[in-house]
Amino acid sequence: MKFPFHLLILVFFITIPSFGQSTANLDPNAFAFFLKEPIQLDGMLDEEIWTDEEGWNTGFMQYFPSDTSLADAQTKIKVAFDANNIYIAAIMENTGPRKYVSTSLRRDYRGEQNDGISFVFDTFNDKTNAFQFGVNPYGVQREALLANGGARSEDLNLAWDNKWYAEAKIMENHWQVEVIIPFSTLRFNDGAQNWNVNFYRIDSHKGERSSWSPIPRNFPIISTAFSRKLIFEKALEKSSANISIIPYVAGRTSKNFLEGTQEELTPTAGGDAKIGIGPALNLDLTFNPDFSQVEVDEQVTNLDRFEIFFPERRQFFLENADLFDSFGQPRSRPFFSRRIGVDIDSATGQNVQSKILYGARLSGKVTDDWRVGLMNMQTATDEDAGIAGKNFSVLAVQRKVWTRSNIGLIFVDRESLSVDEFQQLFDPNAYNRLLGMDFNLASADNRWTGKVFYHRTFEAGETESPYSFNAYVLYSDLHWNWSFSYQDVGKEFNPEVGFVPRKDYKRLNPDVSYLFYPNSRLINRHGPTLEFEGFWNETLGTTDRDINLGYEVRFNSLSRLELSLRNRYIYLFNDFDPTRTGGEALPAGSDYQFRNLLVEYRSNPRKTFNLVATGEFGQYFTGNIQRITSQMGVRMGYIANISMNFNYARIRLPEPQNDADLILVGPRIDLTFTKNLFWTTFIQYNNQIDNLNINTRLQWRYAPVSDFFLVYTDNYFPGDFMPKQRSLVLKLNYWLNL
Fold it and tell me: Which segments constitute the DUF5916 domain (predicted)?
């Protein structure tokens, strides 16, 4: 390891654009009025605070299709509060008669095709993390956590749930919303006088997106860098005990036809607790958690040589998840919560639970500049599967520097319970630990972002180069976008509670793109991208090389078209079957160079029928490939969404390798009978793993954030429909605020 070289890169990246770290906000602020009497939630806006013409926040600026003019469909918002709640009124004006688009009545809608108004509260004024609440014209709610400054769509986490209330009314020339958010739902400093805030609206009729505080259109609309101040009439005080108890009862029965075993209907109980420690820290506790209601992962056809990443969906792991998950980068994550309590069933390819006994997590702000996260989880021993119980501990500390940057420290420890011959509680030789430090760069104007980190793992035996280093910087303005990344992952870097699909390589990845903004009714923006990615190590030299030339066109209708020419070189350091079907493998030590054309099209998502399709054509190792991946959807108002995932790969290779026709079909029917009753059926046929999976889930939200679930799952051999595994789960939970 050449640490001085890594240190030189670290110093270079830290000192890049410190000049961009301070800007004065001279834009008008919002004001929150103190109320002596609470608001009656009915969506009518007839209380005195709302009928008063003073104090409304107006002048929404267009974000799309342009960002240089006032929005055609204007919006006005007013904010008030009392000792227990924050109140919001919003009036969304129309430019004429129209119909509204809501893809579903299910909570947590997402997509730029939905009409909606969103409220973003950065309660610690760091312009990095925020709470988001949204409502559509039919009163459907969504809540989310925003992390990492909203730099990517993935930074908006809609899986987070909490209690708050909203009512919407559709009027002749506008629609309006009334919102109550309990302060116990939020985290903030006691005595705070102001927050950062922004509001943005999606108008499906015109395809217009607008925001109260202007956001340049080359950044995501969820970006927190451009928020303004919300000034409270008096300092905030947290008087509530802020304790939530979420117990559940469940029953499960299952049958494994392959092993000839059956589980009779087995009752179980457990629950979670959320306890506010002061106004800014939260203690999450879980006992015997059950995640059976979490939707199944959407399968993919895996033609890669490495493991595929699936995101976390379990509620317990979500609040302040970025504090743990933002360390590292996609190819080298020091902590991946799905390593806890999740295994893969080799017969079905589905992720299945391994029992978690209990868990605790303390996370949040200590001061305006310091965040802390501490987690401990214990899993059970499964003697039948030969699995020893494990204890997982994670410590994450983050300190804000400059305006929006931060430095973080992470420690991850996995201990295994001892077997009988040991006297200690934990096996002294079966531990895995990681210690790492990250620097995250984000300039005040959001033009410069980046990351530098160094992580190291520790195990009982001697290891060679157990480290991971990465340096990345991105510059974005209206037209130019360029980035540079250098990564070095050591030969025996082994974070067993993380996600590292490959090791023993160095990676260089520069890219550059340019955008044109024509004066056109059809095209919104277009431009080329050039990207290079190279992998090598000291033993083998170059092992992978990609050179990609692409061109993207985005239309004012929200549809997109992208073309890419890809030139790839791959050296196989292990035997590899290109079809992953058990055929004759290509030998280790051989290398291949091939070229491909990729085409991707996304149709207008506001239409009743929509399509996302990707085609790949060209050479593939010693043969060729034609691959089509698509997602087709039909929307029947907001009652039904019917979609079909389709993935077909036609691979032709000379003997002795296998030819393959890989098919993955996934029809999905999503019915929302009311805002509280939902039924989803998801079928996945995958001939690569020889499995047909059926998952159907009925959800009844009988009280706020309280649900009854009925979940049926079945797996078959697709050739003769012989069953593999079958299960039925009933679960009832209730959210109780104390």
Answer: 243-712
